[in-house]
Amino acid sequence: MQAFPFRTFDDIAKLRLEVHIYCPNCHRQTGPIDLGDDRLRGRAFAGTRFVCSVDRTYGSAQPPRVCGSLGHLVIKPPARDYIPPSRSVPWCEIECPRCVPHWEVSQAAKHLPPWNRIWTRPGIRLACPACRAPLTTVWHGGDEVPFSEGYGRGTTPPSSPKLGL
């Protein structure tokens, strides 16, 4: 198994990635958080706990109270590198099935750093930087994805004429 390309919030900041926090109880996502904060310097991202501080109402008979749920870390590329749904660009979602709190990398594009140094050959497995368990990787955006820009690119025989509609 190959080591994960970053371990700390400082490493994430150097790669110019963003960290958002998702609350599974409120279904709210906040971010990007400030990675230059002194409380995050040198700290491992996996295992860092963020607690939701949103006031929630739990029915009309109860007064509002703080949610207090454990937040999930979502590491994303900056907005300029987002991949729109219509593009046929290979990218993956990476997450650890064992770590608490849960963390994931969204839109790890195969052609952008640091992922372009990892996905050089098929069958690569990544290890979680905290618990060393194999990470779950789900791929999207290949040539066989219907309704995407590259659909049919690899399936159309070269001898068949293309119809201009």
Verbal overview:
There is one protein chain. The protein has 165 residues and is mainly beta. It has one domain (2-140). The protein has one helix spanning 9-14; strands at 2-3, 18-23, 28-30, 55-56, 65-66, 72-76, 91-95, 103-109, 126-127, 136-140. The protein is globular, with a radius of gyration of 20 Å.
Summed up:
This protein has 165 residues and is mainly β. Helix content is 4%, strand content 24%. Residues 146-165 are annotated as: Disordered.
Helix-strand string? EHEEEEEEEEE
Mean pLDDT: 83
**Which of globular, elongated, flat, extended, rod-shaped describes the shape?**
globular
Poorly predicted segments: 145-162
Counted up, domains total 1
**Estimated share of beta-strand residues:** 15-25%
The largest sheet has its strands arranged as 3-2-6-8-7-10
What structural class do helix, strand and pairing data support? mainly beta
Strand tally is 10
As a whole number of angstroms, the C-alpha radius of gyration is 20 Å
Count up the helices: 1
Q: What is the helix content?
A: under 10%
How is the main sheet built? 6 strands, mixed
Intertermini distance: 48 Å
